[in-house]
Structures are given as structure tokens and as C-alpha cells.
């Protein structure tokens, strides 16, 4: 896996964003068992990895991640950046016990937040769009966030700590 | 024709998974799928994009076939393997199943190569075999660790309730 030639803006952006978001998470009271946190973290990384693999890979190549079109070490770090975001997304969904139309509002607001963060990332050249547009990302987040909630509901159904 | 055959094979595997008696906890199955997806997509990105050891076909139907293989077929085979492995009692059967899964994964890759879905540039079948051994071993070790965490949590919940 190639290393970046120089640690410039995009690498610093990933490092600083990850550290800041982890600080926020560690300051929150622990809400989920470790096995659930592991699954949520894996889910976040795998969904991001698969989207990039299929959309930014050869033949389609809608965009590049970081400095090169290749899969470098900082591409891998980028996937860890999704973990705190999905954790916070699920954390507040669970804490506020959202139901009905409130879930829809929550998804729309979080989709806007996600898209805005991606737009900021693209300004720092974390994403280098070729034929991709930020509006497409909005749709992708709009699909993935309900799937994430369904995934969490699936976990709740099968984990003993959620038995009532 | 190749794509249709491969899709039918994948659907067959999915149906098989739905119908078999599952030995693993549903969260363990999800864990396997996620781990395998991450390792496989990373591996194929390295060998096809970074190092260009393997070339994926330009024909769209073969590209779709290869992506289905990466994202659905391989993880479901590994999941079926771990479910079957939990049912096996004797060491010989377990050892035999380990060999069988590696041979099966290599065979599927050979079929895709025969259909020209992929072309080996500076690669050979033994390297793929080594990767599949690594994939099964890594997944097995990580699954063991995850199962321990899950069982411990369940024991704690049972003890407190």
C-alpha cells in the first residue's frame, strides 16, 4: 500500500477530523455493548469501502480519494473517519428514541450534515471529483442512512442486552 | 451466458444459506460478512489497481460478474463454510473442510479466468490460494475473538437478570 509523498492538507484534515470526532465520542456516556460498537464500526467502514471500491475503482472511476487514484494508506484511514459519524448517528437515534415521522426528519438532517462534511472534505482534496457531483452524494447518504438504522434495529433484535 | 450462469450460482448459494440450519449467532454471521467484504475489497484493490497483477475485463457483463463475485459470492461462500464448520465434530472432517473451501474458492476464480473475466499478468493460482488461506484464517481468528466478546456479554446479562 503506497504511502503519501507528503503529508499535506488532505492528510491533516483526515487526522484532525478523526481525533476531534473521537474526543467527542469518548466524552459521551457509553451506551452500547462492545460487540455492538464493533459491528457498527465495521459496518461504517465496509459501506464506505464498498462504495469507493465500486464507484472510484477502474472502469467507473467517478472520483479519486486523496492524492492518487491508487488505494493508498490514507485511503484506509479515511474509512476510520466514518466510524465516529455512524456512531453519533446511531447514538442520538437510540438516545432520543425516535419514532415515526421524526425518524424521517432525523435522516434528512443527518444527510445534510453528511453531505456538507463531504463537501468540506472535497475542499481539502480528500475527494477529487471527476464526473461525480456532490448532489449524488446526498442521494447516496439518503439511501445509506436508513439502511444503517435498519442494521441497528437488526442488531437490537438479536442482542440480549436489548431484550425487554 | 457466463453472467447468467454465475448469477444463478450466486442465487443458489443465497437460497442455500436461507434454508440451512444455522449454527452461528446472527451477529456472528453479520461480523463474518463485514470482515470478509473489507478484506476482499482491499485485496482486489491492491492486486488490480495498485500493483496491476490481475486485470479485470473491459466487457461490462464480465465486469458485473467479477463485482458480483467480490461483493456477494465470496462472502456468502465463506459464511456457508463457517456455518458448516460449526456443525463438524471430528478433526478429520474439519481439516477436510478447510482444504475443500480453499479448493472451491480457487476453482471459482479459475472459472472466471477461463471466461476471461480476469487475466493474470504477474500472478498465478498459488498466490490466490495463499490469499484464500489468509482470508479463512484471519476471519476464523477474528470470529473467535468476536464470539468470546459476545458470549461474555450474554453471560453478564444473564447473571444480572
What does this entry look like structurally?
Chain A is mainly alpha-helical. Chain A is built from five helices and two strands, in the order ααβααβα. Chain A has helices at residues 9-27, 34-55, 73-95, 101-123, 134-158, and strands at residues 63-65, 127-129. Chain A has a two-stranded antiparallel sheet. The termini of chain A are far apart. With 161 residues, chain B is mainly α. Chain B has one domain (2-11, 25-160). Chain B is 80% helix and 4% strand. Chain B is built from five helices and two strands, in the order ααβααβα. Chain B has helices spanning 2-19, 26-50, 60-85, 91-114, 125-160; strands at residues 54-56, 118-120. Chain B is elongated. The mean pLDDT of chain B is 93.
Sequence stretches where pLDDT stays below 50 over 5 or more residues of chain B: none
Large-scale geometry of chain A: globular
Oligomer: heterodimer
Query: Which chains share the greatest interface?
Result: A-B, 29 and 30 residues
Widest sheet: strand ordering of chain B: 1-2
Task: Kindly provide the radius of gyration of chain A, computed on alpha-carbon positions and rounded to a whole number of angstroms.
Answer: 16 Å
Per DSSP E runs of 2 or more residues, the count of β-strands of chain B stands at 2
Give the ordered list of helices and strands of chain A. Answer: HHEHHEH
Q: Main sheet of chain A, how many strands, which sense, barrel?
A: 2 strands, antiparallel
Q: Percent helix among the residues of chain A? A: 55-70%
Contiguous runs where pLDDT drops below 50 for at least 5 residues of chain A: none
Q: In terms of structural class, how would the helical and strand content of chain B be classed?
A: mainly alpha
Strand content of chain A: under 5%
Structural class of chain A: mainly alpha
Could you tell me the radius of gyration of chain B in angstroms?
17 Å
- Helix content percent band of chain B: over 70%
